């Protein structure tokens, strides 16, 4: 086992040193012989053992004696630790690739591949952009919400994504184009639910509601425009009216609908239903029994939709 560990370490050191490359070649020869149950012919293990003991004995004779007596056992111990490290590293890399986190879906624990936690950031009603996700919150579901009240693209597809997002949320704005491209690529359905986590009022939820009620065929063109450009412009009524016109929606009718008390009642009921899902911030994506909190990379959603091996094709 010492030969294996030495080969790995010396191979890395050999990148920077010619002398270490020669030792790495000897270690490789020793490894090949040991795995075929033959002794090392180069005496590599004894050579390296002598070098290590020579360094240790200058500091502690007792430690040198202990090392000499237990050299093989310690080699096995370090090999076990190395193997465990490799397994955990591979597992972390796989989870990061498939879920966006080294520790599994929506985990906010530290991940070396995503040190800033960018894949799990959300905007919340408290204006805190990064929040921990507790196990209880992983039971998020859509059981208490009437999804027919919300706009759905490709309603007859039989395979549907559900997205809770906010027009002003930078994380939602980052995720929405990814979801739209996946919907187009895989020809699946998309139900969009606007929830005002970064807005002082529910006026934008009313806006989305009214556009869908008055001209549902124009809703998705308008929705796409809302997630494009600078979000600072969304606070300008003239800019919003311009987007409505660009999408082919009658701005006057929409504004009249927004001012209608019946709209406020309907939207309030919708928001209460959305809150019943247990979501903690935007964006939150539901797909079958999976929930994705925060802006995941494209590959994470693609793998969830069509499987790991489909994504590799």
Describe the structure.
The protein is an alpha+beta fold and 313 residues long. The protein has 2 domains: 2-69, no CATH class; 122-294, Glutaredoxin (3-Layer(aba) Sandwich), CATH 3.40.30. 53% of the residues lie in helices and 7% in strands. The chain has helices at residues 2-13, 18-35, 44-57, 61-69, 71-99, 170-186, 203-214, 219-226, 237-246, 251-259, 261-275, 298-306, 308-312; strands at 152-153, 160-165, 189-194, 284-287, 290-293. It has a 5-stranded mixed sheet. A hairpin with a 2-residue loop joins strand 4 (284-287) and strand 5 (290-293). The two termini are 38 Å apart.
Average pLDDT taken over every residue: 80
Superfamily (CATH H level) name of the largest domain: Glutaredoxin
Task: Assign the CATH topology of the largest domain.
Answer: Glutaredoxin
Number of domains: 2
How much is the radius of gyration in Å?
29 Å
- Spatial arrangement of strands, main beta sheet: 1-3-2-4-5
Helical element count?
13
Globally, the shape reads elongated
Major sheet size, sense and barrel closure: 5 strands, mixed
Helical content stands at 40-55%
Tally of strands: 5
Can you name the CATH architecture of the largest domain? Answer: 3-Layer(aba) Sandwich
Poorly predicted residue ranges? 125-138
CATH level-1 class of the largest domain? Alpha Beta
Report the portion of residues in β strands.
Answer: 5-15%
Straight-line distance between termini: 38 Å
Structural class: alpha+beta
Order of helices and strands: HHHHHEEHEHHHHHEEHH
